[in-house]
Protein backbone atom coordinates (compact mmCIF):
# COMPACT_ATOMS: atom_id res chain seq x y z
CA UNK A 1 0.00 0.00 0.00
CA UNK A 2 2.82 2.39 0.88
CA UNK A 3 4.47 1.77 -2.53
CA UNK A 4 1.24 2.67 -4.35
CA UNK A 5 0.83 5.79 -2.22
CA UNK A 6 4.44 6.82 -2.94
CA UNK A 7 3.93 6.39 -6.71
CA UNK A 8 0.75 8.46 -6.62
CA UNK A 9 2.55 11.22 -4.69
CA UNK A 10 5.43 11.23 -7.20
CA UNK A 11 3.00 11.51 -10.12
CA UNK A 12 1.11 14.36 -8.45
CA UNK A 13 4.32 16.25 -7.64
CA UNK A 14 5.63 15.78 -11.19
CA UNK A 15 2.32 17.05 -12.59
CA UNK A 16 2.35 20.13 -10.33
CA UNK A 17 5.98 20.91 -11.27
CA UNK A 18 5.13 20.60 -14.96
CA UNK A 19 2.04 22.80 -14.54
CA UNK A 20 4.09 25.43 -12.70
CA UNK A 21 6.68 25.46 -15.47
CA UNK A 22 4.00 25.91 -18.13
CA UNK A 23 2.45 28.79 -16.21
CA UNK A 24 5.77 30.58 -15.71
CA UNK A 25 7.01 29.96 -19.27
CA UNK A 26 3.79 30.39 -21.21
CA UNK A 27 5.42 31.60 -24.46
CA UNK A 28 8.01 28.81 -24.38
CA UNK A 29 5.32 26.13 -24.23
CA UNK A 30 3.15 27.90 -26.80
CA UNK A 31 6.06 27.88 -29.26
CA UNK A 32 7.08 24.25 -28.75
CA UNK A 33 3.50 23.18 -29.41
CA UNK A 34 4.15 24.14 -33.07
CA UNK A 35 6.33 21.06 -33.39
CA UNK A 36 4.95 17.50 -33.55
CA UNK A 37 5.51 15.02 -30.74
CA UNK A 38 5.87 11.31 -31.38
CA UNK A 39 2.56 9.58 -30.57
CA UNK A 40 4.33 7.02 -28.38
CA UNK A 41 4.53 9.37 -25.41
CA UNK A 42 4.04 8.42 -21.76
CA UNK A 43 3.67 10.68 -18.71
CA UNK A 44 6.91 11.12 -16.73
CA UNK A 45 8.83 8.86 -19.15
CA UNK A 46 8.16 10.94 -22.27
CA UNK A 47 9.68 9.30 -25.36
CA UNK A 48 12.84 8.01 -23.66
CA UNK A 49 11.92 4.36 -24.32
CA UNK A 50 12.14 4.89 -28.09
CA UNK A 51 15.93 5.05 -27.99
CA UNK A 52 16.46 2.53 -25.19
CA UNK A 53 18.42 -0.65 -25.78
CA UNK A 54 21.82 -1.59 -27.12
CA UNK A 55 24.25 0.90 -28.60
CA UNK A 56 24.65 -1.33 -31.66
CA UNK A 57 21.16 -0.50 -32.97
CA UNK A 58 21.05 3.15 -31.90
CA UNK A 59 21.74 4.58 -35.38
CA UNK A 60 18.86 2.65 -36.91
CA UNK A 61 16.54 3.67 -34.05
CA UNK A 62 17.34 7.35 -34.53
CA UNK A 63 16.73 7.08 -38.25
CA UNK A 64 13.41 5.30 -37.70
CA UNK A 65 12.37 7.85 -35.07
CA UNK A 66 12.82 10.71 -37.58
CA UNK A 67 11.50 8.80 -40.59
CA UNK A 68 8.19 10.68 -40.75
CA UNK A 69 9.41 13.97 -39.27
CA UNK A 70 11.59 16.88 -40.34
CA UNK A 71 11.27 18.32 -36.83
CA UNK A 72 10.29 16.34 -33.77
CA UNK A 73 9.75 17.36 -30.16
CA UNK A 74 11.28 14.52 -28.16
CA UNK A 75 10.53 14.40 -24.45
CA UNK A 76 13.19 13.03 -22.11
CA UNK A 77 10.84 12.72 -19.16
CA UNK A 78 9.53 16.28 -18.61
CA UNK A 79 12.38 17.87 -20.59
CA UNK A 80 11.62 18.85 -24.22
CA UNK A 81 14.33 18.38 -26.88
CA UNK A 82 13.86 19.51 -30.49
CA UNK A 83 15.29 17.09 -33.07
CA UNK A 84 16.11 18.53 -36.53
CA UNK A 85 17.22 16.87 -39.76
CA UNK A 86 16.68 19.51 -42.52
CA UNK A 87 19.87 21.34 -43.42
CA UNK A 88 18.30 24.82 -43.51
CA UNK A 89 16.72 24.34 -40.08
CA UNK A 90 20.03 23.15 -38.67
CA UNK A 91 21.93 26.05 -40.24
CA UNK A 92 19.43 28.57 -38.82
CA UNK A 93 20.16 27.32 -35.29
CA UNK A 94 23.94 26.99 -35.74
CA UNK A 95 24.22 30.46 -37.28
CA UNK A 96 22.41 32.16 -34.41
CA UNK A 97 23.24 30.11 -31.31
CA UNK A 98 26.70 29.31 -29.96
CA UNK A 99 25.85 27.73 -26.60
CA UNK A 100 26.61 24.01 -26.81
CA UNK A 101 24.91 21.45 -24.63
CA UNK A 102 27.38 18.90 -23.30
CA UNK A 103 27.00 15.92 -20.95
CA UNK A 104 30.67 16.06 -19.99
CA UNK A 105 31.31 12.54 -21.29
CA UNK A 106 35.01 13.20 -21.95
CA UNK A 107 35.70 15.74 -19.20
CA UNK A 108 37.63 13.42 -16.88
CA UNK A 109 39.96 12.53 -19.76
CA UNK A 110 40.33 15.75 -21.77
CA UNK A 111 39.11 18.48 -19.44
CA UNK A 112 37.26 21.36 -21.09
CA UNK A 113 38.61 22.43 -24.45
CA UNK A 114 37.21 24.70 -27.14
CA UNK A 115 34.70 22.18 -28.46
CA UNK A 116 32.62 21.99 -25.28
CA UNK A 117 33.57 25.19 -23.47
CA UNK A 118 30.90 27.66 -22.39
CA UNK A 119 30.53 30.68 -24.65
CA UNK A 120 32.85 33.14 -22.91
CA UNK A 121 35.59 30.53 -22.53
CA UNK A 122 35.07 29.42 -26.12
CA UNK A 123 35.65 33.00 -27.29
CA UNK A 124 38.99 33.07 -25.43
CA UNK A 125 39.99 29.76 -26.99
CA UNK A 126 39.06 31.00 -30.44
CA UNK A 127 41.28 34.06 -30.03
CA UNK A 128 44.25 32.01 -28.86
CA UNK A 129 43.94 28.98 -31.13
CA UNK A 130 42.51 30.64 -34.26
CA UNK A 131 45.96 31.69 -35.53
CA UNK A 132 47.08 28.04 -35.38
CA UNK A 133 44.91 27.39 -38.44
CA UNK A 134 45.77 30.41 -40.62
CA UNK A 135 47.52 29.92 -43.97
CA UNK A 136 51.02 30.58 -42.59
CA UNK A 137 50.67 27.84 -39.98
CA UNK A 138 48.95 25.44 -42.38
CA UNK A 139 51.87 25.84 -44.74
CA UNK A 140 54.24 24.76 -41.95
CA UNK A 141 52.05 21.80 -41.08
CA UNK A 142 52.33 20.68 -44.71
CA UNK A 143 55.84 19.32 -44.11
CA UNK A 144 54.55 17.12 -41.28
CA UNK A 145 51.57 15.93 -43.33
CA UNK A 146 53.97 14.85 -46.09
CA UNK A 147 56.32 13.07 -43.70
CA UNK A 148 53.56 11.16 -41.91
CA UNK A 149 51.80 10.23 -45.16
CA UNK A 150 55.11 8.81 -46.43
CA UNK A 151 55.47 6.89 -43.15
CA UNK A 152 51.94 5.51 -43.65
CA UNK A 153 52.95 4.17 -47.08
CA UNK A 154 55.92 2.38 -45.52
CA UNK A 155 53.87 1.00 -42.61
CA UNK A 156 51.40 -0.47 -45.12
CA UNK A 157 54.15 -2.07 -47.22
CA UNK A 158 54.40 -5.41 -45.31
CA UNK A 159 50.64 -5.90 -45.67
CA UNK A 160 50.88 -5.06 -49.39
CA UNK A 161 53.73 -7.51 -49.92
CA UNK A 162 51.81 -10.28 -48.10
CA UNK A 163 48.93 -9.77 -50.52
CA UNK A 164 46.26 -10.16 -47.83
CA UNK A 165 43.39 -7.92 -46.85
CA UNK A 166 43.99 -5.84 -43.73
CA UNK A 167 41.74 -3.53 -41.72
CA UNK A 168 43.35 -0.15 -42.39
CA UNK A 169 41.80 1.74 -39.45
CA UNK A 170 44.59 1.07 -36.94
CA UNK A 171 47.26 2.06 -39.49
CA UNK A 172 45.43 5.34 -40.03
CA UNK A 173 44.93 5.98 -36.32
CA UNK A 174 48.67 5.86 -35.74
CA UNK A 175 49.43 7.96 -38.82
CA UNK A 176 46.98 10.62 -37.71
CA UNK A 177 48.19 10.58 -34.13
CA UNK A 178 51.74 11.25 -35.38
CA UNK A 179 50.46 14.13 -37.55
CA UNK A 180 48.33 15.69 -34.84
CA UNK A 181 51.02 15.49 -32.17
CA UNK A 182 53.60 16.93 -34.56
CA UNK A 183 51.46 19.90 -35.55
CA UNK A 184 49.98 20.60 -32.12
CA UNK A 185 52.88 19.83 -29.76
CA UNK A 186 55.83 20.16 -32.11
CA UNK A 187 57.25 16.73 -31.21
CA UNK A 188 57.58 13.21 -32.55
CA UNK A 189 56.01 10.61 -30.26
CA UNK A 190 58.79 8.19 -31.12
CA UNK A 191 61.32 10.50 -29.43
CA UNK A 192 59.59 10.09 -26.06
CA UNK A 193 60.00 6.33 -25.65
CA UNK A 194 57.75 4.79 -23.00
CA UNK A 195 56.04 8.12 -22.31
CA UNK A 196 55.09 8.35 -25.97
CA UNK A 197 53.81 4.76 -26.04
CA UNK A 198 51.66 5.32 -22.95
CA UNK A 199 50.29 8.56 -24.41
CA UNK A 200 49.43 6.85 -27.72
CA UNK A 201 47.61 4.03 -25.95
CA UNK A 202 45.69 6.47 -23.75
CA UNK A 203 44.54 8.55 -26.75
CA UNK A 204 42.98 5.43 -28.28
CA UNK A 205 41.47 4.47 -24.90
CA UNK A 206 39.79 7.88 -24.63
CA UNK A 207 37.36 7.13 -27.45
CA UNK A 208 36.54 3.69 -26.01
CA UNK A 209 35.71 5.25 -22.66
CA UNK A 210 33.46 7.87 -24.24
CA UNK A 211 31.59 5.06 -26.00
CA UNK A 212 31.21 3.15 -22.73
CA UNK A 213 29.57 6.13 -21.03
CA UNK A 214 27.01 6.35 -23.82
CA UNK A 215 26.37 2.63 -23.65
CA UNK A 216 25.97 2.63 -19.85
CA UNK A 217 24.25 5.94 -18.95
CA UNK A 218 24.70 5.47 -15.19
CA UNK A 219 28.41 6.15 -15.80
CA UNK A 220 27.54 9.74 -16.82
CA UNK A 221 27.36 10.66 -13.13
CA UNK A 222 30.85 11.90 -12.24
CA UNK A 223 31.25 10.22 -8.84
CA UNK A 224 30.03 6.84 -10.11
CA UNK A 225 32.36 7.11 -13.10
CA UNK A 226 35.34 7.96 -10.88
CA UNK A 227 34.67 4.81 -8.81
CA UNK A 228 34.51 2.80 -12.05
CA UNK A 229 37.82 4.31 -13.26
CA UNK A 230 39.52 3.48 -9.98
CA UNK A 231 38.24 -0.12 -9.91
CA UNK A 232 39.28 -0.75 -13.53
CA UNK A 233 42.68 0.95 -13.28
CA UNK A 234 41.78 3.55 -15.91
CA UNK A 235 42.85 6.45 -13.69
CA UNK A 236 46.40 5.50 -14.64
CA UNK A 237 45.53 5.86 -18.34
CA UNK A 238 44.18 9.36 -17.69
CA UNK A 239 47.43 10.24 -15.92
CA UNK A 240 49.44 8.96 -18.92
CA UNK A 241 47.23 10.91 -21.33
CA UNK A 242 47.69 14.18 -19.49
CA UNK A 243 51.35 13.82 -18.51
CA UNK A 244 53.06 14.27 -21.89
CA UNK A 245 51.32 17.49 -23.04
CA UNK A 246 51.73 18.97 -19.54
CA UNK A 247 55.46 18.17 -19.61
CA UNK A 248 55.92 19.74 -23.06
CA UNK A 249 54.02 22.87 -22.01
CA UNK A 250 56.19 23.25 -18.90
CA UNK A 251 59.37 22.72 -20.92
CA UNK A 252 58.26 25.33 -23.45
CA UNK A 253 57.34 27.88 -20.78
CA UNK A 254 60.61 27.31 -18.91
CA UNK A 255 62.52 27.93 -22.13
CA UNK A 256 60.67 31.22 -22.64
CA UNK A 257 61.32 32.23 -19.04
CA UNK A 258 65.07 31.52 -19.32
CA UNK A 259 65.29 33.57 -22.51
CA UNK A 260 63.71 36.53 -20.75
CA UNK A 261 66.06 36.23 -17.79
CA UNK A 262 68.97 36.54 -20.23
CA UNK A 263 67.38 39.73 -21.57
CA UNK A 264 66.72 38.02 -24.86
CA UNK A 265 63.57 38.75 -26.84
CA UNK A 266 61.95 35.60 -25.43
CA UNK A 267 59.02 34.46 -27.49
CA UNK A 268 58.25 37.84 -29.02
CA UNK A 269 60.42 37.29 -32.11
CA UNK A 270 60.04 33.54 -32.17
CA UNK A 271 58.34 32.26 -35.31
CA UNK A 272 55.68 29.71 -34.21
CA UNK A 273 55.99 26.26 -35.73
CA UNK A 274 53.15 24.48 -33.93
CA UNK A 275 50.03 25.13 -31.87
CA UNK A 276 51.93 24.90 -28.61
CA UNK A 277 54.12 27.84 -29.68
CA UNK A 278 50.99 29.97 -29.90
CA UNK A 279 49.21 28.94 -26.71
CA UNK A 280 52.30 29.37 -24.50
CA UNK A 281 52.76 32.99 -25.52
CA UNK A 282 52.16 35.81 -23.04
CA UNK A 283 49.07 36.99 -24.92
CA UNK A 284 47.31 33.68 -24.29
CA UNK A 285 48.24 33.63 -20.61
CA UNK A 286 46.74 37.09 -20.24
CA UNK A 287 43.42 35.55 -21.32
CA UNK A 288 43.57 33.04 -18.47
CA UNK A 289 45.21 30.18 -20.32
CA UNK A 290 47.00 28.41 -17.50
CA UNK A 291 48.82 25.11 -17.92
CA UNK A 292 45.68 23.00 -17.46
CA UNK A 293 43.73 25.01 -20.03
CA UNK A 294 46.58 24.72 -22.54
CA UNK A 295 46.78 20.97 -21.90
CA UNK A 296 43.04 20.54 -22.46
CA UNK A 297 43.20 22.25 -25.85
CA UNK A 298 46.07 20.01 -26.96
CA UNK A 299 44.24 16.89 -25.75
CA UNK A 300 41.09 17.92 -27.62
CA UNK A 301 43.16 18.22 -30.79
CA UNK A 302 44.80 14.84 -30.23
CA UNK A 303 41.89 12.69 -29.07
CA UNK A 304 39.21 14.37 -31.20
CA UNK A 305 41.17 14.91 -34.41
CA UNK A 306 42.84 11.51 -34.59
CA UNK A 307 39.75 9.31 -34.61
CA UNK A 308 37.55 11.44 -36.89
CA UNK A 309 40.24 11.82 -39.56
CA UNK A 310 41.26 8.16 -39.35
CA UNK A 311 37.64 7.09 -39.85
CA UNK A 312 37.25 9.51 -42.76
CA UNK A 313 40.30 8.11 -44.60
CA UNK A 314 39.28 4.51 -43.80
CA UNK A 315 35.83 4.98 -45.34
CA UNK A 316 37.39 6.79 -48.31
CA UNK A 317 39.83 3.95 -49.00
CA UNK A 318 36.96 1.47 -48.75
CA UNK A 319 34.79 3.44 -51.20
CA UNK A 320 37.64 3.82 -53.72
CA UNK A 321 38.38 0.10 -53.43
CA UNK A 322 34.73 -0.67 -54.17
CA UNK A 323 34.47 1.88 -57.02
CA UNK A 324 37.39 1.08 -59.29
CA UNK A 325 36.43 3.67 -61.92
CA UNK A 326 36.56 6.47 -59.34
CA UNK A 327 39.87 5.15 -57.96
CA UNK A 328 41.42 5.11 -61.44
CA UNK A 329 40.21 8.64 -62.16
CA UNK A 330 41.59 9.92 -58.84
CA UNK A 331 44.91 8.15 -59.45
CA UNK A 332 45.27 9.62 -62.95
CA UNK A 333 44.56 13.08 -61.57
CA UNK A 334 47.24 12.63 -58.91
CA UNK A 335 49.83 11.47 -61.47
CA UNK A 336 48.99 14.31 -63.84
CA UNK A 337 49.22 17.05 -61.20
CA UNK A 338 52.21 15.78 -59.21
CA UNK A 339 54.26 14.08 -61.98
CA UNK A 340 57.15 12.36 -60.20
CA UNK A 341 57.01 14.51 -57.07
CA UNK A 342 56.03 12.98 -53.76
CA UNK A 343 56.07 16.19 -51.72
CA UNK A 344 52.77 18.13 -51.75
CA UNK A 345 52.54 21.87 -51.19
CA UNK A 346 49.85 23.47 -49.02
CA UNK A 347 47.95 24.57 -52.13
CA UNK A 348 48.01 21.03 -53.53
CA UNK A 349 46.57 19.67 -50.28
CA UNK A 350 43.89 22.36 -50.25
CA UNK A 351 41.49 21.80 -53.15
CA UNK A 352 44.06 21.26 -55.92
CA UNK A 353 42.85 17.74 -56.77
CA UNK A 354 39.33 18.53 -57.95
CA UNK A 355 38.00 15.02 -58.51
CA UNK A 356 39.68 13.64 -55.39
CA UNK A 357 38.15 16.45 -53.35
CA UNK A 358 34.71 15.42 -54.62
CA UNK A 359 35.43 11.85 -53.49
CA UNK A 360 36.46 13.10 -50.05
CA UNK A 361 33.39 15.29 -49.60
CA UNK A 362 31.04 12.56 -50.80
CA UNK A 363 32.58 10.10 -48.34
CA UNK A 364 32.19 12.59 -45.50
CA UNK A 365 28.57 13.15 -46.57
CA UNK A 366 27.69 9.46 -46.39
CA UNK A 367 29.89 8.55 -43.44
CA UNK A 368 30.20 11.72 -41.42
CA UNK A 369 32.26 10.67 -38.37
CA UNK A 370 30.19 13.06 -36.24
CA UNK A 371 26.51 12.12 -36.28
CA UNK A 372 24.96 14.99 -34.33
CA UNK A 373 25.71 18.42 -32.93
CA UNK A 374 23.83 20.17 -30.15
CA UNK A 375 22.88 23.69 -29.12
CA UNK A 376 21.02 25.43 -26.34
CA UNK A 377 19.06 28.25 -27.97
CA UNK A 378 19.94 31.54 -26.30
CA UNK A 379 17.28 33.43 -28.25
CA UNK A 380 14.28 32.73 -30.44
CA UNK A 381 15.21 31.34 -33.87
CA UNK A 382 12.91 31.99 -36.84
CA UNK A 383 12.89 29.17 -39.42
CA UNK A 384 12.25 29.47 -43.18
CA UNK A 385 8.54 28.71 -42.81
CA UNK A 386 8.39 31.34 -40.00
CA UNK A 387 7.91 28.84 -37.22
CA UNK A 388 9.84 29.90 -34.14
CA UNK A 389 12.13 27.85 -31.95
CA UNK A 390 11.89 29.32 -28.43
CA UNK A 391 14.85 30.47 -26.37
CA UNK A 392 16.34 28.05 -23.82
CA UNK A 393 15.47 24.89 -25.73
CA UNK A 394 17.89 21.99 -26.16
CA UNK A 395 18.27 21.28 -29.91
CA UNK A 396 19.82 18.15 -31.44
CA UNK A 397 20.85 18.51 -35.10
CA UNK A 398 21.17 15.19 -36.94
CA UNK A 399 24.05 15.78 -39.39
CA UNK A 400 23.91 12.15 -40.55
CA UNK A 401 20.22 12.37 -41.48
CA UNK A 402 20.65 15.76 -43.14
CA UNK A 403 23.45 14.32 -45.28
CA UNK A 404 21.13 11.53 -46.44
CA UNK A 405 18.01 13.62 -46.99
CA UNK A 406 16.30 12.53 -50.26
CA UNK A 407 14.93 16.06 -50.69
CA UNK A 408 18.55 17.29 -50.92
CA UNK A 409 20.33 14.36 -52.58
CA UNK A 410 18.59 12.48 -55.38
CA UNK A 411 19.99 9.08 -54.42
CA UNK A 412 21.24 9.69 -50.87
CA UNK A 413 22.42 6.15 -50.08
CA UNK A 414 24.56 5.83 -53.21
CA UNK A 415 28.22 6.92 -53.11
CA UNK A 416 28.56 9.35 -56.02
CA UNK A 417 31.34 11.99 -56.15
CA UNK A 418 29.31 13.97 -58.70
CA UNK A 419 27.08 15.05 -55.82
CA UNK A 420 29.81 17.68 -55.40
CA UNK A 421 30.13 18.79 -59.00
CA UNK A 422 29.60 22.50 -59.66
CA UNK A 423 26.25 21.75 -61.32
CA UNK A 424 25.00 19.73 -58.35
CA UNK A 425 26.15 22.35 -55.84
CA UNK A 426 24.29 25.10 -57.72
CA UNK A 427 21.01 23.18 -57.36
CA UNK A 428 21.31 22.66 -53.61
CA UNK A 429 21.07 24.85 -50.55
CA UNK A 430 24.43 26.29 -49.53
CA UNK A 431 23.82 24.60 -46.16
CA UNK A 432 23.67 21.10 -47.63
CA UNK A 433 27.11 20.05 -46.33
CA UNK A 434 27.22 20.33 -42.56
CA UNK A 435 30.03 17.95 -41.55
CA UNK A 436 32.17 20.80 -40.24
CA UNK A 437 29.21 22.92 -39.13
CA UNK A 438 28.25 26.45 -40.10
CA UNK A 439 28.14 29.72 -38.21
CA UNK A 440 30.48 31.16 -35.60
CA UNK A 441 31.07 27.84 -33.83
CA UNK A 442 31.86 25.82 -36.94
CA UNK A 443 34.93 23.60 -36.97
CA UNK A 444 38.03 25.76 -36.78
CA UNK A 445 40.17 22.95 -38.21
CA UNK A 446 38.28 22.39 -41.48
CA UNK A 447 41.21 23.20 -43.80
CA UNK A 448 43.62 21.37 -41.51
CA UNK A 449 41.49 18.20 -41.65
CA UNK A 450 41.07 18.37 -45.44
CA UNK A 451 44.82 18.86 -45.95
CA UNK A 452 45.73 15.94 -43.70
CA UNK A 453 43.15 13.67 -45.30
CA UNK A 454 44.20 14.67 -48.83
CA UNK A 455 47.90 14.07 -48.16
CA UNK A 456 47.26 10.57 -46.83
CA UNK A 457 45.06 9.40 -49.69
CA UNK A 458 47.32 10.95 -52.37
CA UNK A 459 50.35 9.11 -51.01
CA UNK A 460 48.46 5.83 -50.64
CA UNK A 461 47.03 5.94 -54.17
CA UNK A 462 50.38 6.83 -55.70
CA UNK A 463 51.94 3.67 -54.30
CA UNK A 464 49.07 1.18 -53.98
CA UNK A 465 46.10 -0.05 -55.93
CA UNK A 466 43.17 -0.73 -53.58
CA UNK A 467 40.70 -3.62 -53.74
CA UNK A 468 38.29 -5.14 -51.21
CA UNK A 469 36.19 -8.26 -50.80
CA UNK A 470 33.19 -6.09 -49.89
CA UNK A 471 30.85 -5.83 -52.86
CA UNK A 472 28.13 -3.69 -51.29
CA UNK A 473 28.07 -1.38 -48.29
CA UNK A 474 24.66 -0.35 -46.90
CA UNK A 475 23.35 1.53 -43.89
CA UNK A 476 22.95 -1.83 -42.15
CA UNK A 477 26.74 -2.03 -42.05
CA UNK A 478 26.96 1.10 -39.89
CA UNK A 479 26.98 1.53 -36.13
CA UNK A 480 27.43 4.54 -33.89
CA UNK A 481 28.97 5.55 -30.58
CA UNK A 482 30.80 8.86 -30.38
CA UNK A 483 31.41 8.45 -34.13
CA UNK A 484 29.85 6.57 -37.03
CA UNK A 485 31.73 3.36 -37.83
CA UNK A 486 31.65 0.27 -40.01
CA UNK A 487 30.40 -2.92 -38.32
CA UNK A 488 32.41 -5.01 -40.79
CA UNK A 489 35.66 -3.07 -40.55
CA UNK A 490 37.67 -1.58 -43.42
CA UNK A 491 39.21 -4.57 -45.21
CA UNK A 492 41.58 -3.44 -47.96
CA UNK A 493 44.03 -5.37 -50.14
CA UNK A 494 46.92 -3.14 -51.23
CA UNK A 495 48.79 -4.04 -54.43
CA UNK A 496 52.05 -2.13 -54.95
CA UNK A 497 52.11 -0.10 -58.13
CA UNK A 498 55.19 -0.54 -60.31
CA UNK A 499 57.53 2.51 -60.51
CA UNK A 500 56.60 2.96 -64.17
CA UNK A 501 52.93 3.31 -63.23
CA UNK A 502 53.52 5.74 -60.37
Q: Gap between N and C termini, in Å?
A: 81 Å
Please give the largest β-sheet: 4 strands, mixed
Q: Which strands sit side by side, in order, in the main sheet?
A: 1-2-7-4
Helix/strand structural class: alpha+beta
Strand proportion: 5-15%
Q: What's the alpha carbon Rg, rounded to whole Å? A: 24 Å
Mean of all residue-level pLDDT scores: 87
Number of strands: 11
Low-confidence stretches: none
User: Number of helix segments?
Assistant: 20
Helix content: 40-55%
Q: What gross morphology would you assign? A: globular
Describe the structure.
With 502 residues, the chain is α+β, with helices and mostly antiparallel strands. The protein is 54% helix and 9% strand. A 4-stranded mixed sheet has the order 1-2-7-4. Strands 3-11-8 form a 3-stranded antiparallel sheet. It has a two-stranded antiparallel sheet with strand order 5-6. A hairpin with a 3-residue loop joins strand 9 and strand 10 (484-486). The longest helix has 32 residues, at 291-322. The protein starts with a helix and ends in a 6-residue tail after the last strand. The mean pLDDT is 87.
Amino acid sequence: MSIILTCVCVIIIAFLVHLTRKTRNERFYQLIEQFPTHPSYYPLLGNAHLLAGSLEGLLKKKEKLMESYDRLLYWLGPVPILLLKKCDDIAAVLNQCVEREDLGIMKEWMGTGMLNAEVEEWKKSRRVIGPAFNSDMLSKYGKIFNEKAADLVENLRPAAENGEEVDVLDFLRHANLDSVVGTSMGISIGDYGKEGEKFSYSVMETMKQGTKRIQYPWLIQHHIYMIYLKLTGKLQDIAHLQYLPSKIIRDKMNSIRKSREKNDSGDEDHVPESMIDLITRESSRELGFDEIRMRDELLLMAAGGVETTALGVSFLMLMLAMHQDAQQKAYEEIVELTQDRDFLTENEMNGHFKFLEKCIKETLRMFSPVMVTTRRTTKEVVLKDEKIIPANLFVVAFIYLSNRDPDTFENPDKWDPENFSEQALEKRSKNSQLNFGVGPRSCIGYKYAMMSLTAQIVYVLRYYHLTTSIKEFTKDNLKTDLCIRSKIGYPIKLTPRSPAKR
